[in-house]
Amino acid sequence: MKWFKSSFSETSGNACVEIALCDDGGIAIRDSVFPSRTIRASRAALAALVTEIQAGANGPARPR
Asked: How much is the pLDDT for 64?
């Protein structure tokens, strides 16, 4: 799989969200800090998640 770094990630490379296209048409997502931990979703499920996040559907982000 070829991983792509989010344009919103830090330039230092220490806090990156990466995505890759799966052979089955889905999307794989990982945090560059833990590259062995990935989640997979359909394009539709990922689009719905992004829409909900943008709309604030799950409340404000919690600080780390």
From this structure: 54
